[in-house]
Amino acid sequence: MSLIQRDRARLWHPYAPASPSLPLWEVEAANGVRLRLRSEDGTRHEVVDAMSSWWSAIHGYRHPVLDAAGKRQLDDFSHVMFGGLTHAPAVELAERLVDMAPSAPGRSRLDRVFLADSGSVSVEVALKLAVQFQTASGHPRRQRFLSIRGGYHGDTFAAMGVCDPVDGMHAAFPGLLAGNVFAPRPPAAASATPETVQAWAAELQATAAAHSGELAALIVEPVLQGAGGMYPYPAECLTALRQVADRYGLLLIFDEIATGFGRTGELFAAGHAGVVPDIMCVGKALTGGYLTLAAMLCTDEIASTVSGGQAGALLHGPTFMGNPLACAVANASLSIIDGGGWQTDVARIGAGLASGLAPARGLESVADVRTVGAVGVIELHDPVDVTAVTAAAIRHGVWVRPFRNLVYTMPPYISTAADIEQITAGMTAAVAEVHQRGPERSGVPA
């Protein structure tokens, strides 16, 4: 029995059925930006990873700096409990994150860090913290959250409750999710005008005003909604979010799990508007894709208020909180980012994606092509045939993982111009082969 057959007999995969016919490819090796895949029939393919392993492997695979950091920590110890104990990798990581976090004159710094297992868990912690803060501040009725349509914040229950309640991936649990409040989605960045942004901001404020006595916080993905549709919106909306939160006594939570560490062209997406949130969640690229780790940052005022409340503590504590191995690799990853080369890389990749994906606009099946930072998106009129597009892209030497009606890429920052050219050409060719052709091939079966 092949490895793929053994997998199908025992394992679940993300957002997939437990099926004996689930399309899978075995990874035999990963190095730099390339994966060596083996299909079920034994065929081998070398592909450029256009996904950075779901947006996390920003430095590529087998990076010597990250490898060395992990090996050094393994020689000391791989894990100790964080209850009552501490260690150098965790302390260093907290200090680095605080130093890197968004800041602005007149706003409190994000100077307290809670280390979590995953992005979803960091969002859970942020939501818990907001409720505990409001209760400790004398507002125990503030138990709900204000979010915006189209958002995605994770798969755990509180996180699901602030995802889009209608079009989101978690609409299957309507009776179990908290009844939160949702404002309209901001206008799309490409078509927004000062008037549409102002109109959206007015509706956001009206929604907050109508529910202010019951809202603990406002949570959004800044500038780019990820799994909700790879949807960029104007940075000016972040200013409106900050103003509304301040006006109605809400904490402002920025979910930077997908956007953090340079992906949109700023170190954190908040930087596009110079806005500082009260709470920020980071994850994914935090360890360069090596190990699962996330963090929640907040102001000292919030931490002190919660610590002085009736509970006397933030009521969360994962078993693997502050895992030394993950923290050590995260520190190495942040050292690479501190070098500053990511800014040139992201700008270069963004330009390559914009030019390389432009021909996809000529395909009749394509509704839009857009880029933001090191993110490139081909949006189709209809849902993507995920299996067929994935297989076609592999034949063109590219690994992608489409969803909904999107074929998109978030390549590693070390991708060369040739890698980006291969990614964009492969994505465009895969869409052309599977989903309708250009005008010259209109009506030809897929």
3D structure, described in words:
The chain has 446 residues and is of the alpha/beta class. 36% of the residues lie in helices and 17% in strands. It is globular and about 65 Å long. It starts with a helix and ends in a 12-residue tail after the last helix. This is Adenosylmethionine-8-amino-7-oxononanoate aminotransferase. InterPro entries: Aminotrans_3, Aminotrans_3_PPA_site, BioA, PyrdxlP-dep_Trfase, PyrdxlP-dep_Trfase_major, PyrdxlP-dep_Trfase_small. Belongs to the class-III pyridoxal-phosphate-dependent aminotransferase family. BioA subfamily.
Give me a quick take on this structure.
With 446 residues, the chain is an alpha/beta fold. Helix content is 36%, strand content 17%. It is built from 13 helices and 16 strands.
> Structural class of the secondary elements?
alpha/beta
The N- and C-terminal alpha carbons lie at a distance of: 33 Å
Helix tally equals 13
Radius of gyration: 22 Å
Mean pLDDT: 95
Instruction: Determine the fraction of residues in helical runs and give it as a percent range.
Output: 25-40%
Strand order of the largest sheet: 4-12-11-10-7-5-6
The low-confidence parts are 438-446
Tell the overall outline: globular
Please indicate the percent range of residues in DSSP E strands (runs of 2 or more). 15-25%
Sheet with the most strands? 7 strands, mixed
Query: Can you count the beta strands?
Result: 16
| Topology order in helix (H) and strand (E) letters | HEEEHHHEHEHEHEEEHEEEHHHEEHEEH
Subcellular location: Cytoplasm
EC number: 2.6.1.62
Pfam family, one: Aminotran_3
Cofactor: pyridoxal 5'-phosphate
